[in-house]
Design brief:
Layout (H helix, E strand, L loop, with lengths): L5 H34 L1
Length: 40
């Protein structure tokens, strides 16, 4: 069985999840902002 570099894989995974989180946060902000503008 080959030696897998778990650190490298984990680093990539956390990088990807961070990007996904920021994308989701951005889309949530875009959803919320128009509502706030209409309310005010």
């Amino acid at each position: 069985m080959e030696d897998i570099h778990y650190d490298a894989i984990f680093g990539k995974l956390s990088e990807i999840s961070t990007k996904l989180d920021s994308i989701q946060a951005t889309s949530k902000v875009k959803e919320v902002l128009p509502v706030n503008l209409e309310t005010n």
